[in-house]
Fold:
Amino acid sequence: MSHNPAKKVTMKDRLKNMRPTRIIVLSFFLLIMLGTLLLALPISLKEPPPSFVDGIQDGFFTATSATCVTGLVIDDTYQHWTPFGQAVIIMLIQFGGLGIATFATAFTLLLRQKLGIRFMTIATESSGASFINVKSLVKLMIGFTFIFEAIGALLLMLRFVPLYGADGIWPAIFIAISGYCNAGFDVLGFVPGNVNLSAFAEDPLVSLVVAFLIIIGGLGFIVVQEIYHNKFLKRFHRQEPLKLGFHSKICLIMTAALLVIGTVGFYFFEADASLANLSPLGKINASFFQSVSTRTAGFSTVDIGSESEFGKMLSILLMFIGACPGSTAGGIKVTTAMVLITTVICTIKGRGEVTVFKHRLPSGIINKALAVVMLAFVLVFADAVIIVSLNDHVAFLDALYESVSAFGTVGLSVNLTPTLDRVSQFFLALTMFIGRIGPATFGLSILMRNRGHGESILPEGKMLIG
Structure:
């Protein structure tokens, strides 16, 4: 009697059976590892590092920050990296901002290949689209991305080329991509006295173009697609525009509200601090730019280290919230913030259901919002504690600022990251990774197991709250 040997499980079989959330996490991890190796090459560095280990550590942190479109850096991007290294960084930003699944889907469609069920599922998880319209959304994402980045680069060249000649072309392209992907990296280290975009604090052309790119990238591809189809296309075909969906309405209202709150708050708190040396119009311009950038991008036209404590706390709040789901931004997302705010209001009013704009929010969404916020809060608080405990020169507020900036994939810094020890920098890199993937997705990718066939019926637990 013969016995059939057990079938050997191959790597292909493992990938085939792997959950989409895990594949997304794995793809970002592999992209970071590839970026680390490329940035550790001598061709990427203007000067050799003190040791091979230092080169790997710098490359790992920078690759993580670029792939997670954060912008926290240990070394100045222009001064430390060669043109090859800068090209590696911008490619990591582009792939990390849109998601590897997006590019893989677009490449498959370009070859006129059909998307399998599994491929559609992964692309859906990555982009936030519905299963039905994922193909059209991916096409629109790629098209809009290159169009907006090209327009932004051309507009920035109008300022940089007259100032720096041919040397202004690459910074315009680099900053346009970095701005749209909400990354916050720049290559203007050759400008005397400039830090990030501080030389253009009162320049509306540069600051407003970058701010516009940041806002578009932070709205989320689903919102942009709906605005395009329901408003612009309808008007182009001389048809009656359609109303935006519930999700898009929430994203736009919350984005506008946070922009106003941030602009007014920064102007009020920072007029005599980080904005002190600017003209009245320059203060308004810089306040608006910081309100835009703080929630997602990490560009700065002022010295963040000179911000008042109130300004830093406002920044922490905006960075923690972030931008919209399905975008290049991090944070808990504006929809999560809206769910929490309305849940609190409805609970105080004694309502049995949570409603927003005549829509009832299901308990599953509320529970997920609470889980995301709690996971995020624990992560940034633990990160700040680690930084303070390992670095005697760091105040807790500054450590919290840095950790929230990493989680929100913002990249703003109180000039702290380069001064931290390697362990703290590693935990900041881990925080950036979790912030880009999303705490809920990251947790599910680690903890999720195959679900059972049914749920047991348990007695109701009753307790006093508050």
